[in-house]
Write a sequence for this structure.
């Protein structure tokens, strides 16, 4: 007993204790729910069997039913569109801004940091603000678009099925751009300056320098950022709750909102769990890419 | 001469870019101050001609914001304390050693960091209800947030511990400190700033958390401000000035804290997520 106590205060036991306690917590709070999720996706779960573990197993019935539903395919397409459009927008605008702030001038780093306010705001507040900006008759975005002459009549961003998903995408691009920019700035500042000086002496112009030095040197950073973008866009829930609630008629619904909607609006917990399992597998794959592209840090 | 001109030009362009990017924020602040009719004017007014300063007190009263914000604070403080108590030690050990076990632990933590809350909430809700945790819904939300955010905290704080020179700790051990003594007297004070910044980041996230609170807290008296904002925004609402006033009261403290601590937060964030 005394030996154990001594080890905990002054030996290996100290480290093991420090690391085992949080890992046990994470195992109970994240690991077990993950397993439970998979189990539920093979069970029949309704309001009455919610309180018991002994539920009938139904094999792959939930999966088969899910893919037989008419809304499944459009929602999967929406998710793919939401993810790719959001990542493309965030990355391109973020890269442009990062390149701009990379041309050093007094106050650059402070101004750059200011952009990150979009990232620390509660997601629901961002949703509320954009909900108002995107409003059909009185929205300020429609006003700007009319003034520039892009549109003639008002676009009903939130209630027109053709635009509702884009309403959320616009808000999400705004939300994620700053984070992309900050991480890209870190990557840019890691490129040795003498490479550019050498290229300039050799007569390479700005465009050539960008494609032969900047982009190749940024490859692992870009990989990590795209993977992180995929992870973050698949986590995006608050904007859907704040702007369209997945509507009208599922036209702006995506899997991560649908899973919640099935469980907590329609009380179909088995279906909710089934979608969750499928999407978590996707997220896990993305995170393996992310971990691999940051492995220099992990491996030391 | 041309150099200062270039710098000024660049700064002006940066200002314009920031103004465009931060316009939604400005629009939130101005809309809150508009009267009901000025809000729906076409073309929209970009400066409120007749600012309604008492709207904040009105919304605070009518929406019972004190209670909502108190619940947000309880949840955020609870989650941050739990995460800090458990996560700091974990980050320390993961920073101090390099072997296969540490790599496995890091990999697991990075994988847990990416699980979307809206997908994890189904099994967590069902499991928690079976163990009776939903009788104390705020505590249940604290547990769920802690599990979600702790991996991120560990990654950030580990980067801080990596920058504390190990020689200092070894010197303390030679001087007769125990491991616990060296940890609390030497390592922890040196890493204090990094831990604090990471804790503030986690606090901001937990303060705005929505999915878990919306799903697990049924009683209105226990709901945080994010859920309160959500129930304020009905499908056909036209109280946008009130909603924006609510949003203003909700985010202004966060924004103020962010602007004050900006430099530290940005560097803490980037050191953990990349490099």
């Amino acid at each position: 007993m005394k030996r154990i106590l001594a080890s905990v205060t002054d030996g290996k036991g100290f480290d093991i204790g420090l690391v085992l306690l949080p890992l046990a917590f994470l195992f109970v709070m994240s690991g077990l729910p993950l397993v439970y999720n998979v189990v539920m996706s093979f069970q029949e779960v309704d309001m009455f069997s919610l309180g018991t573990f002994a539920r009938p197993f139904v094999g792959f019935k939930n999966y088969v039913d899910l893919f037989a539903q008419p809304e499944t395919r459009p929602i999967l397409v929406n998710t793919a569109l939401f993810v790719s459009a959001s990542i493309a927008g965030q990355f391109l605008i973020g890269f442009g801004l990062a390149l701009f702030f990379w041309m050093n001038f007094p106050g650059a780093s402070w101004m750059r940091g200011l952009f990150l306010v979009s990232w620390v705001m509660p997601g629901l507040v961002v949703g509320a603000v954009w909900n108002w900006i995107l409003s059909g008759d009185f929205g300020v975005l429609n006003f700007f678009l009319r003034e520039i002459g892009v549109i003639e009549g008002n676009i009903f961003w939130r209630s027109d099925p053709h635009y509702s998903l884009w309403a959320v995408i616009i808000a999400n691009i705004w939300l994620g751009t700053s984070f992309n920019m900050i991480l890209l700035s870190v990557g840019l500042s890691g490129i040795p300056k003498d490479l550019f000086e050498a290229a300039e002496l050799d007569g390479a112009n700005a465009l050539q320098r960008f494609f032969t030095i900047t982009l190749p040197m940024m490859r692992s950073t870009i990989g990590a950022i795209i993977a992180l973008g995929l992870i973050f866009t698949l986590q995006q829930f608050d904007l859907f709750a704040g702007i369209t609630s997945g509507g009208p008629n599922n036209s702006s619904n995506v899997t991560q909102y649908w899973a919640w909607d099935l469980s907590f609006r329609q009380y179909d917990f088995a279906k909710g769990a089934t979608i969750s399992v499928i999407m978590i597998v996707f997220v896990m794959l993305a995170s393996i890419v992310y971990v691999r592209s940051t492995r220099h840090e992990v491996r030391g | 001469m041309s150099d200062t001109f270039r710098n000024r030009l660049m700064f002006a362009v940066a200002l314009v870019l920031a103004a465009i990017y931060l316009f939604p924020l400005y629009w939130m602040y101005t809309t809150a101050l508009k009267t009901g009719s000025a809000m729906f004017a076409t073309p929209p007014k970009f400066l409120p001609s007749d600012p309604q300063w008492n709207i904040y007190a009105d919304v605070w009263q009518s929406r019972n914001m004190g209670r909502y914000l108190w619940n947000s604070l309880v949840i955020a403080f609870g989650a941050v304390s739990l995460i800090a108590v458990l996560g700091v030690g974990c980050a320390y050990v993961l920073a101090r050693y390099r072997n296969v076990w540490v790599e496995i632990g890091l990999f697991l933590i990075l994988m847990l960091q990416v699980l979307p809350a809206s997908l994890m909430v189904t099994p967590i809700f069902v499991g928690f209800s079976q163990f009776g945790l939903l009788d104390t819904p705020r505590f249940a939300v604290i547990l769920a947030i802690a599990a979600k955010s702790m991996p991120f905290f560990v990654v950030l704080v580990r980067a801080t511990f990596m920058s504390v020179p190990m020689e200092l700790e070894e010197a303390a051990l030679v001087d007769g400190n125990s491991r616990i003594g060296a940890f609390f007297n030497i390592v922890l004070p040196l890493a204090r700033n990094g831990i604090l910044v990471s804790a503030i980041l986690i606090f901001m996230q937990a303060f705005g958390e929505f999915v878990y609170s919306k799903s697990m807290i049924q009683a209105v008296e226990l709901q945080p401000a994010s859920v309160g904002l959500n129930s304020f925004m009905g499908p056909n609402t036209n109280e946008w000035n009130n909603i924006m006033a609510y949003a203003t009261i909700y985010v202004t403290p966060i924004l103020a804290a962010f602007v004050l601590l900006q430099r530290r937060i940005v560097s803490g964030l980037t050191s953990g997520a990349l490099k």
About this structure: Residues 16-53 of chain B form one domain. The first helix of chain B runs from residue 2 to 21. Residues 72 and 224 of chain B are 4 Å apart (CA to CA).
